[in-house]
Hints:
Elements (H helix, E strand, L loop, with lengths): L1 E8 L7 E4 L7 E4 L2 H21 L15 E5 L2 H13 L4 H8 L3 H7 L9 H11 L8
Amino acid sequence: MEYYAILKKDKYDTNAYLVSFPDLPNVNTYGDTKEEALRHAAEALNGCIECDFERGYSLPKPRKINRKNAYPIPVEPHIQIAWQLRKLRNGHSQSDIAQKLGITYQAYQKLENPRKCNPTIKTLEKISRVLGWNVQISK
């Protein structure tokens, strides 16, 4: 999963690049070089998504943007896993899923928290069986 960042030269400081995300208007940053701006974009994107997601905000579906100044910025895997688990729960409570998995509510709650999410592959396989999904690893 990735969101596209738009880089523009700063009109007041021609050595700086401004970064914005069309899908996430509250995420903005800059850098003195294109490389630095893209590094800052990844930090800003993942920090904001992690924080918003943890507070229960819904996240917009990322769109592919085909522009010369658009760069894909990946969402970190631990955030993607927490996000997918919340979506896959599909209206079931965390307690219901925890009970089906044979774990405590608190243990399951950590799986949906991007700051604490660190499931093993075996845990993901078990969750996928309970939710009726398949775990797939892709490029």
